[in-house]
Amino acid sequence: MPTNEKEINNNLFDQLSLVERIERQLKSGGQEAAEKEIEILKKEINRKLYQQPPMMNE
User: 50: which DSSP letter?
Assistant: First the structure.
């Protein structure tokens, strides 16, 4: 979980970037392009989520 305002802001900026990428695909290529972009984003998130070694030691 985010522990301070900077981490929270970073997470919000990341989320905003994802939404903007999907919006661009919708405008330029329609629903199919947006769905492909979502699949790419899911793969990128999963790589970060399950990376070895983890980003933070617990």
Answer: T
Which tens digits make up the pLDDT trace of 2-50?
Answer: 678 988 898 999 999 999 999 999 999 999 999 999 999 999 999 988 8
Integer Cα distance of 44 and 5 in angstroms: 24
Q: Which residue blocks in the chain are alpha helix, DSSP H?
A: 5-49
CA 30 – CA 19 distance, rounded (Å): 15
Structure token pair of residue 29:
């290529």
Q: Rounded distance, CA 43 to CA 54, Å?
A: 17
What pTM was estimated for this model as a whole?
Answer: 0.72
